Amino acid sequence: MTDNDHKKSVRKPAPSAADNCLHINQLSVHRGMALVISNLSHQQSAGDICCLTGPNGAGKSTLLRTIAGRLPAAGGDIKCALPIIYIGHTDGLSGAISGRENLAGWAKINGFSATENAIDTALSSFATNRFADLPVRVLSRGQRRRLALARLALAPANSLWLLDEPNAGLDQASSRILDEIVQKHATAGGMVLAATHLDFAAAAQPRSLHLPGLVT
């Protein structure tokens, strides 16, 4: 499944005893016929920021997509009662419509506030207002990434953010904005798990989860 503007990027599991935590227990995931993740266990609590690292092919994107419910697990389990927001590395924007329309459509699909004020605030969070009404297809890579990340401003305060290479294509100013938004989200009790090979929210001293990759 690809992440695009017409599919939900939010998973809303049923409540459990671990209301403010992410629990991954002995998780195994296949990609095609290959075992990519084997017996992985990981836990995060409210306020945690964690960087997911590892070589190409280690399963970083696969893990994020599995937590988001987009890929099935071959074994083990994942428990999280919070809304799960997934922003993939392909941005998930429709090129035929404007950034503003993309955000409004995403919010509507996922049941979040889509008032004009809420959309304007989200667009302002990554300084995208200047080009928000242009068709996404005419925008640069960095501008599209900023629009994709602006959706985070519409997400619930207690959500788990799954971010795949969130700062790829961003300039230094936009990367600083991303770090500030991530740290503010964690301070408010949210959680973040981000796959990245770049500096990410360094001032918050994030935890690290390393996927070494499986020897074949």
Model description:
A hairpin with a 2-residue loop joins strand 2 and strand 3. With 216 residues, the chain is of the alpha/beta class. The protein is built from 5 helices and 9 strands. The protein has one domain: P-loop containing nucleotide triphosphate hydrolases (Rossmann fold), CATH 3.40.50. The N terminus is likely disordered. The longest helix has 16 residues.
Summarize the helices and strands and which ones pair or pack.
Elements: E1 10-11, E2 21-31, E3 34-45, E4 49-53, H1 60-67, E5 75-79, E6 84-87, H2 99-110, H3 116-125, H4 141-150, E7 160-164, H5 172-187, E8 191-195, E9 207-210
CATH structural architecture: 3-Layer(aba) Sandwich
Sheet bearing the most strands, described?
6 strands, mixed
Multimerization status: single chain
CATH C-level class is Alpha Beta
- The fraction of residues assigned to DSSP E strands is 15-25%
CATH topology call: Rossmann fold
Mean pLDDT rating: 89
Structural class: alpha/beta
Number of strands: 9
What is the number of helices?
5
Radius of gyration: 17 Å
Question: Key features?
Answer:
216 residues, alpha/beta, Rossmann fold, six-stranded mixed β-sheet, 26% helix, 25% strand
Summary of the model, kept short:
26% of the residues lie in helices and 25% in strands.
